[in-house]
Amino acid sequence: MVAQLQKLVVRMLLESYGIRTDKYDAHSDSTTYLMRLLKYRRSKGETNLGFKGHTDKSFVSILHQNQVNGLEVRLNDGEWVYYQPSSSSSFAVIAGDVIMAWSNDRIKSCYHRVMVEGEEVRYAVGLFSFLTAIVEAPEELVDEDHPLLYKPFYNQDLLDFYVKNNSQNKGDTNMVKAYCGTSML
Ligand SMILES: O=C(O)CCC(=O)C(=O)O
Ligand SMILES: [Fe+2]
């Protein structure tokens, strides 16, 4: 089950950042999921951009694609890197804006896009996780060297903000900073 994979990834993250593991159950209980199936078909003469560059507004997203590749990730220097699954049963785990805020910027959300090169139909399935409890950085991730960068917020309110300000800003990596970044205070 893909949700199990999501839970495992989150547990590993909490452990690797030295966050009290008793917080894990509360985190897990407040996680909800959205599953989306995407179909990309490129007609002759059309641009090969299947999904423009963006960060997900999720906590994390888990993606699986059919044999037709296309997912690309943008590195810090602006270079786009093609995602090449190691096997036909591979899943890609993508950090969303919510984990970026929750982790006080320790984990940066992943800017990605989909390019469709050939005429073959591409399918992708994504499991997007969201939090129902208030999103705030655990105390282990906030100290003098790492001051709090985001005010506590609700994931749903971030989504509403995103929808309202969508027209110009779609794909803006700093949507969550614009919504609840402490430097905006
Ligand atoms: O089609 C894909 O592999 C990725 C889709 C995606 O980025 C999204 O649904 O947010
Ligand atoms: Fe995405």
TrEMBL record:
Xref: PROSITE patterns: FE2OG_OXY
Source superkingdom: Eukaryota
Coiled-coil boundaries: none
Cited Pfam families: 2OG-FeII_Oxy
Domain Fe2OG dioxygenase: 8-133
PANTHER family according to UniProt: 2-OXOGLUTARATE (2OG) AND FE(II)-DEPENDENT OXYGENASE SUPERFAMILY PROTEIN-RELATED
Name assigned to this protein: Fe2OG dioxygenase domain-containing protein
